[in-house]
Amino acid sequence: MASQSRKGGKNRSGQEGVLARVTNTISQSSIVQQGKLVASDAAFVTKKLLKSTGKAAWIAGTTFLILVVPLIIEMDREQQMNELEMQQASLLGTPPVAPQK
Q1: What residue intervals traverse the membrane (predicted)?
Q2: What pLDDT is recorded for position 101?
Q3: Which domain does 85 fall in, by range?
Q4: Which residue positions in the chain have pLDDT lower than 70?
Q5: Is residue 78 one of the residues assigned to a domain?
Q6: Phi, psi of 76 (to 5 degrees)
Q7: Is residue 38 part of a domain?
Q8: Phi, psi at 11, each rounded to 5°
Q9: What's the structural domain count of the chain?
Q10: Whose CB among 20, 27, 47, 58 lies 3.0–4.6 Å from 16's, allowing a Cys bridge?
């Protein structure tokens, strides 16, 4: 340990230590290189998928707000009008009319 310098894992005579050689051999292995490539590709695909999912969620959300929310508000308003008409009819003594569908 004391004979090894801090740069490159080499000792004073310029030879690499066993740990440095093993580490270099493993990091230059075709399996490790292939694993790095696969991990990089997986990260790229995940990033693209998340980006497109976000766009789809934005489109679905704004479409819902523009088309469905006004419909729900109008249906609620219609229901309140029908209830008001039935309440007025019961106060005036007229027979209740079946609500329209």
Answers
A1: 56-73
A2: 63
A3: 18-92
A4: 1-16, 94-101
A5: yes
A6: -65, -40
A7: yes
A8: -90, -175
A9: 1
A10: 20
